[in-house]
Specification:
Elements (H helix, E strand, L loop, with lengths): L2 E4 L3 E7 L17 H16 L5 E8 L15 E6 H5 L4 H17 L7
Parallel strand pairs: 2-3, 3-4
Antiparallel strand pairs: 1-2
């Protein structure tokens, strides 16, 4: 989990990507993806450990809004994606502007393909 956000009734488990793909070959049997593991937590552990949390989201943040397949349905958690620019737009204008400048710089210096 790259980041987590929690309120009294909501939990967001986030995965941040730049060029890398969603990790696979994970879990005890090495047969799960990062999304599988996040959803399993929301299904199996979160209800027992965090019973007051009724809303669970697995969020992918990347250069495009296609980190996780949103078609992947779960009755225990929503699967959503945002771009880095979407995140920047959530901040006050001065911070958003600085973050957008950084993202533009990073994009101009990023190599294509999976790197992390």
């Amino acid at each position: 989990i790259d980041f987590g956000l929690m309120s009294a009734d909501a939990l967001i488990l986030g995965e941040a990507k730049w060029n890398s793909a969603v990790g696979s070959g994970q879990g005890v049997a090495k047969d799960r993806t990062q999304l599988d593991l996040r959803l399993a937590y929301c299904e199996e552990l979160a209800p027992r450990l965090l019973p007051a949390v009724k809303h669970r989201v697995v969020l992918g943040v990347g250069r495009t809004n296609e980190v996780f397949p949103e078609s992947r349905r779960s009755s225990f958690a929503a699967v959503r994606n945002l771009t880095w620019s979407d995140i920047a737009s959530l901040f006050a204008p001065s911070i958003a502007s600085e973050l957008e400048s950084y993202l533009a710089w990073r994009s101009s210096h990023a190599l294509d393909g999976p790197r992390g």
